[in-house]
Specification:
Blueprint lengths: L3 E5 L6 E3 L5 E3 L2 H4 L2 H15 L3 E4 L3 H4 E3 L2 E2 L2 H13 L2 E7 L15 H15 L5 E5 L2 H9 L11 H25 L4 E7 L2 E4 L5 H10 L2 H6 L6 H9 L4 H8 L7 E6 L5 E4 L5 E3 L6 H12 L3 E5 L10 H18 L4 E7 L4 E2 L12 E2 L12 H13 L23 H11 L23
Parallel strand pairs: 1-4, 1-15, 4-7, 7-8, 8-9, 9-11, 10-12, 11-14, 14-15
Antiparallel strand pairs: 2-3, 5-6, 12-13, 16-17
Length: 444
């Protein structure tokens, strides 16, 4: 499989309360004009030389109820992606749910969402790559601990409830998709975080937060957590049976560890437990190595960007820095499969994490909202052109089989034969512990 150079068209749609206290939905596709300009947007993706696009239908207008769907927009857009031979990495749930579901406190969300995922995979059987739930940790944190989105709660119990429902939804969706497409691959887009202690008094809190940052992926991959995290989960509503159900999952070998990194992903923890942005201290390479060492999965850099500032070259410098970090971890032996600038166009209200409906345009994209290319877009196109043929197309650490849209017509029998010859992802043998055997590190 060739190295996956990617971009994305963000389909965020959390609900927030506006200045008048009225709950409104923040639909980033609407704010950025994608519904009107989607054909042009796909043209721009091809103009860059990008073959992989993080993309998905808006869940709140597509999923109308249990077993009720409006596929009109998805039918048009995905047919056009297939015609262009653009490979989508399908983002099924991005920070929100339809009004009829409510929010991430709904205990039925996971099973309902699995039905939606199965319906999508059945309607679009040529799609192979998925991110069922985007940034599970951030989704739960912003919705149920920070009080910014959706349920707008601020307790540990609400956060743990959201985490378990979101991760369970992701797991059940993977199973449902695999029933339809056995060679499906799941590129988990998750935020890469680190918490730095500002003083010795802050060390216990920083250590705690550096464990919490892994919770969504630990549960998703069936990895045993530390005794401290186990007590935290049980104290805040997770049951022993629910915990062991996560441990029993065996889907890790279908997954790519997609990790996102922004200048806001590192934090400074003060002695009183409060946190604030620290800016880039360790950087992508160091933090990615921490995640890889924990999960031993192939990696894809699935999101990054930076505002184009007054000099006009800030985002270009950030692009080259991120790319240098990708090459660094790859040269150190981490199997890195791809890189993504996110997203294709400028975003709206990203400066408030979408929690304020201000309509403020943030110059973060490869193109502006008039669809004119930004300096970082030109730099990314050059980077792709220069590096595409240089990077090795295979890693000795794993075997990956992907099917481009133009080959989807080969049919189920041909795909099954290909699948039998080359299983999608082979985890290193040392990462496979026997059932019931303890892992290292004092995990439970």
């Amino acid at each position: 499989m060739a190295f996956m150079f990617a971009t994305g068209i963000e389909n965020s749609y959390p609900t927030v309360r506006n200045a008048q206290g009225v709950r409104v939905r923040v639909d980033e596709m609407a704010k950025c004009g994608h519904y009107q300009h989607w054909r042009t947007d796909f043209d721009l993706v091809q103009q860059l030389g990008v073959d992989y696009l993080r993309y998905g239908p808006p869940i709140h207008t597509t999923w109308l109820g249990p077993d009720r769907y409006d596929w009109a927009f998805a039918d048009e857009t995905f047919a056009d992606l297939a015609r262009r031979d653009l490979t989508p990495i399908v983002d099924l749930c991005h920070f929100g749910v339809p009004d009829w579901v409510g929010d991430f406190q709904n205990p039925d969300f996971a099973s309902l969402f699995a039905g939606y995922a199965r319906a999508f995979a059945t309607r679009f059987p040529w799609v192979q790559l998925y991110t069922p739930v985007n940034e599970m940790y951030v989704c739960a944190l912003f919705s149920a601990k920070y009080g910014w989105w959706n349920e707008q709660l601020t307790t540990d119990a609400a956060f743990v409830t959201a985490i378990k429902h979101v991760v369970r939804a992701n797991v059940l969706a993977m199973r449902a998709i695999l029933d339809v497409r056995p060679d499906a691959l799941f590129i988990q887009s998750e935020s890469s975080e680190y918490f730095h202690a500002a003083s010795p008094a802050a060390l216990p809190r920083a250590d705690f937060l550096n464990q919490v940052r892994f919770l969504s992926l630990d549960l998703n991959y069936g990895r045993r957590v530390s005794s401290e995290m186990y007590e935290y989960l049980l104290d805040n509503g997770l049951t022993r049976a629910e915990y062991h159900a996560f441990l029993d999952e065996t889907l890790k070998h279908h997954c790519v560890l997609g990790n996102d990194y922004y200048v806001t992903n590192e934090h400074r923890v003060e002695a009183d437990g409060s946190t604030r942005a620290s800016g880039e201290v360790f950087g992508y390479a160091v933090i990615t190595r921490q995640y890889f060492d924990r999960y031993r999965l192939p990696v894809m850099h699935t999101e990054t960007n930076l505002v184009q500032g007054p000099t006009g070259d800030e985002s270009v410098a950030w692009l080259h820095k991120q790319w240098a970090n990708v090459l660094r971890v790859r040269n150190d032996g981490v199997p890195v499969l791809g890189f993504t600038w996110y997203s294709l166009t400028d975003q709206v209200d990203w400066d408030t994490a979408l929690r304020e409906d201000n309509g403020r345009v943030n110059p973060l994209g490869l193109f502006d909202l008039n669809r004119a290319i930004r300096p970082v877009g030109a730099a990314y196109a050059t980077l792709i052109r220069e590096w595409r043929a240089v990077l090795p197309t295979q890693s000795t650490a794993l075997t990956v089989t992907t099917v481009r849209p133009r080959h989807a017509g080969a049919g189920d029998a041909a795909r099954a034969a290909l699948w039998a010859r080359e299983r999608p992802l082979h985890a290193p043998p040392q990462d496979r512990a026997a059932p019931g055997m303890p892992r290292a590190g004092g995990e439970v």
